[in-house]
Amino acid sequence: MIRLFAALSLPDEVCARLQSLQMGLDGWRLSPPQNFHITLAFFGEVSEAQATDLDAALSAVEGPGFDIWLDGVDVFGGGKPRLAYAAVRSDPALSHLRDKVRQAGRTAGLEIAAERYVPHVTLGRGGARADTRLTRWLEGNAAFLAGPVRAETFQLYRSDLGRAAPTYTEVARYALTP
Ligand code: 2AM
User: Which of 10, 42, 85, 116 to mutate to test the pocket of ligand 1 (most atoms within 8 A of CB)?
Assistant: First the structure.
C-alpha cells in the first residue's frame, strides 16, 4: 500500500519566505521547507492497482492554469491550535481543480471524505497553546503576501511516514492548460 496525495508545489523562493514565517512558532513541529505544498486531495493508503487507476484518472483532469497568492497566516483548531499555516487566497480555478482531483479519486474507486476546503500551506503542527506568543505570531504575520505563483502543473506525491517529518516524493506530474 502507498499513501498518496495530490498537491501544488511552490518555488524555492516562496518556500524560503515561508520558512522565515516559521520563526516564532516555538514549540511546534515545523514542516521542513521541502515539504511545503498546497494539498488538493488526500487519498490515503491505496494499492498499486488503485494507484494505477488514480494516475489514469488524474491524467484526464483538465483545467486552466492560474495564479496562486499566499495571503496571511492562521491556525486550525482555534483555542486548541493544532496546525499553523499560510493561507491561500481562494480562487475559482483552484476550487475547480480540487473538485476535479477529488472526482478523479472517486473514479479510481477511492473514498474521498466530504470536507470543506481551506487551501493552505502547513507550517507546523500541534503541541502549542493559544498563548500570547501565538497571538503575536498571528498579528505579526497577518500582512504576509507572496505571489503570484503560476500553477502550471499539479503533482501526485507519495508520503512515507517517518519518526520525524514525513518524506514526500513526487510520483507523477499533470499539466494544466496554459
Ligand atoms: P495538510 O495539507 O493540512 O498539511 C499529506 O499527508 C498531506 O495531505 C498533508 O499536507 C495533509 O494535511 C494532507 N491531508 C489531508 N487530509 C489528511 C488526512 N486525513 N491524513 C493525513 N494527511 C491529510
Answer: 42
